[in-house]
Amino acid sequence: MSASRYQPWLHRLALSTACVAMVTVVFGALTTSKNAGMAFENWPNSDEYTMVTYPWLRDFGRNWNKFLEHGHRLAGMLIGMWSIALVMVTFRLESRRWVRGLSIAILLGVICQGILGGYRVLLDERGLAMLHGAFAALVFSLMATMAVVTSQGWLNAAESKGAGVGLLKALAMATVGLLAVQYLLGGFIRHRGTGLHEHLGMGIVAYMMVWVNAIVVQRCSQVWLRRSAWTLVALTTAQVLLGVGAWFFKYGFAPLGIVAVAESVQQLLMRTVHTVFGILVFMTAVVHAVRVVRVGHFLHSDEVPFSLTDRTPDALTAGGAS
Question: Fewest C-beta atoms under 10 Å: which of 54, 72, 100, 154?
């Protein structure tokens, strides 16, 4: 096919890959929040059963640790097969070699994730669990990037008119970097119980950077970029509120009558949603940076950097990967 031809089915498959991966992420986050990572002491088998013959549904309501851990393993197997399909369809429909390479990178990332998860069990190593969680954000972001580069918006960017986006690139990359550090610090809290104050401090800095990025992008004429920038603001704001909620249920908050109860359902769910949103925030920052790089590739350096007309922020719309 032509490098500029839109392939809707490939784009849909790329989007579905990210969605299926989110199931794996949710099960993994629940497993960590429930401290169920060692529900089984062996891998890839689960107790005396193979991966596919284990009576998984039997544990529902009876043994939540095994239900969550094996569910995470099954979801991992599913995303592995989905990633293989993505590579096959990409090589069939996509002529851009770097996009083909990206599909292979996604498959290799999924394989590495599976191996990391397996050795986390075999070695009973919390450090590998933390690495497993951090690498998940990277692989998920690659999947979202695949959805972006196969989208109609990616091709439409070739027709963009406007100027160089050097400042936007710098802000986008800085935002990704700060959010990556913030996500890693969150992993230290979940797996090591350390770094709380560093996480809070970096959270303030990262949140300010997200707003600065969006405000600067708002002066750019590219709606595609404004959407992803303000979507990032919305997700990050929700993440801050979830972090406050996780704090309340972890340590209690007397003015609201919230009492901290270890391993309570509220605590489990709040920590899990906070973790999942952390990955979504990082992914959205990566998507925005990729969009900025794409637009900048087609703009001429002698054009005006930004429109000087003030703009009212557009209503927040789904910016994600499409």
Answer: 100
